[in-house]
Amino acid sequence: MSHRNWRTRLILVSLAVLTLLGAVATGASAFVLLQLGRIERHELADVLTSAPQQPVTAADVLIEQPATMAANPDSSTGGASSGQAGNAGDGVSVGDEPDALSDSSGAADRTAGEPVLPAGPAGENYLLVGTDSPLGLAADDPLRAGHSDQSRLADVMMVIRLRDDGTAAMMSIPRDLAAEIAGTSDIAGTGVIAKINSAYNRDRTTAARAARLIDTVEENLDITLQHFVEADFQAFLRLVDAVGGVEMTFARPLRDQPKQNATDQTESRSGFVTGAGTHLLDGRQALAYVRSRHLEEQLPDGTWQRHGAWNDLARTDRQREFMRTAAAQVAPALLANPVNLLAVLDIAADHLSTSDTLSIVNDGRRLADKFAGLDVDADVEDYELRVVDIHEPVRWSLGLDPQHAEHNQRVLDVFRGIGWDDIVESRVRVQVTGTARHQVVAGLSELGFDAEVAGPMPEGISGVPEGTVVYLAPQGRLAAGLLVSHLLPVPEFAGHAELDATTVILHVGDEPPRIDPGYRRVDVPSADQLAP
User: Distance between CA atoms of 205 and 152, rounded to whole angstroms?
Assistant: First the structure.
């Protein structure tokens, strides 16, 4: 089963809990309102960023569009992304027909040259944080090893984008990702580089910790966050207990002994021990299992050896495995028993905190209306950043993999409101030839195009064009349309069979076009209308 399945179920459970709380509050008793009022809310409205306008994409500027491809759900044209769900996290490339767009009832009324403005926000980003606070654990509990009551490392971090059309996207942030911690710059402007989760352990109050983590995520990943939700160790432990435990099956006996029994006394252990077979884990056992860093398995001859890798990525995989199993068991248990729902309400009141941008009652009702028909298989997308081990400047940390820079950029773009297959400036390569090409490349680069000087004449073209011409591939109408939407006057078009769908050639004539940062609607001829 893929990672996507447990995550989609988990977000469904999360939405269901918040929705149910809002629904219960509709006919709220004094007890329910009292419990909801106990949920801690932090003053973070000034730290969190307002949802930005939707970026303009090629789909917004091109007119006379064939009805053969659905547009991005974040796009103002609506529809569903073709690069979503599990495939998106694996690095989907641009679609097979990127010049074909969904039909729009207003397409016939569009006029070439008409200005195109960004649409309003079409979704909001939520930062969900699970912290490793040991408050509530017994003094001799092995899970306290290495943690003080003041410890507040962000153990799990996830960004969830909830769109106005009822779809969602999710992305985990590796806790060991090396990042510049917000608010630590010295007089020279150099900040502290550390694991990103440590941003949550530099301040004394939850609001201050949350503010620093929000700023750190926004500054390092270049995305905006509109809401914040945090839960601690005990929320996880009590939730498992509230539904009567979670069944897990193990092929061999496993153990992660307490620190005092470990060979290396400096290593923290979770104390998890189980035999082979199927076992019902209570909250304490489940927490020890998902937090284990040094899990061992017993071989048939009675000896013990490492179970998998002993690193944080392996632990993350183990957490996913547990959550995949737990999500399938927890949702039915919550929905089948009103007593369990009241227990969840109590857990939320004790262990959940949110930003003051969220109202459990009002937002619960809003989510209930918006996601009533949510289809997790079709409407929830799962994205994953590609990372590599690094040792500088922070030992034993992770960095974004430079070999997968385009993939990571596309993942982050999703949380900026740009669909996986949308055509935006950064995804269009422009080879500029002709006169004033250096000046034109500089102007296009400022707009975000991947522009480069290619020479005095387009390669493979016979004859010198008299004016400015845009050469495009048969499947390159979107890329060409986005480029031309910034050019005044509109140049001529010509075909070039050797280009790919996102590469265009701009040959600049004796009078270079003016480069306008704004957008205008353009009518790009179809491939069969273009002469080479």
Answer: 10
